[in-house]
């Protein structure tokens, strides 16, 4: 009787399946969203000179759009602006002096910080929906977020 018990134990051990952790499939790596396009994207500043952008109530959200023809246009919260931008190298981004109306509003500080950051911009990096602008020393001057309008 013992030999048949031993034979059954050996057969049962050989029929066992692998533990669950070995047979489970590994989930595919998380897919990262493609980077937003530099041009023809509605960019909204979220951080200027290391400070979070806060827009006072009853003022417009500032934004920047870089057009395919080399035109930079947007709104600083109080005034619309327009000028040119240059991006001749893959990571280069500089702006001509921006023309703007000069109406006063509660968001003048935000507008001044925004246009100053654009004037200081020399390079950029896009990661997903985030555009970061850097000055000539590679210090960050602005962080903008792509906002998709429907």
Automatic annotation (TrEMBL):
Entries under Gene3D superfamilies matching the protein: 2.40.128.270
Identify the domain of life.
Bacteria
Q: Which residues form the DUF306 domain?
A: 36-144
Protein name, per record: META domain-containing protein
Name the source organism: Hymenobacter negativus
């Amino acid at each position: 009787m013992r030999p048949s018990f031993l034979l059954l134990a050996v057969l049962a051990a050989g029929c066992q399946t692998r533990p669950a952790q070995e047979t489970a499939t590994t989930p595919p790596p998380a897919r990262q969203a493609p980077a937003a396009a530099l041009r023809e994207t509605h960019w909204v500043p979220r951080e200027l000179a290391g400070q979070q952008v806060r827009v006072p109530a009853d003022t417009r959200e500032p934004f920047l759009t870089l057009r395919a023809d080399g035109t930079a246009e947007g709104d600083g919260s109080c005034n619309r602006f327009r000028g040119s931008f240059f991006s001749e190298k893959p990571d280069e981004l500089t702006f001509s002096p921006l023309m703007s109306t000069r109406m006063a509003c509660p968001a003048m500080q935000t507008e001044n910080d925004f246009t100053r950051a654009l004037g200081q911009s020399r390079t950029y990096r896009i990661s997903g929906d985030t555009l970061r602008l850097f000055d000539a020393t590679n210090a960050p001057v602005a962080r903008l977020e792509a906002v998709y309008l429907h």
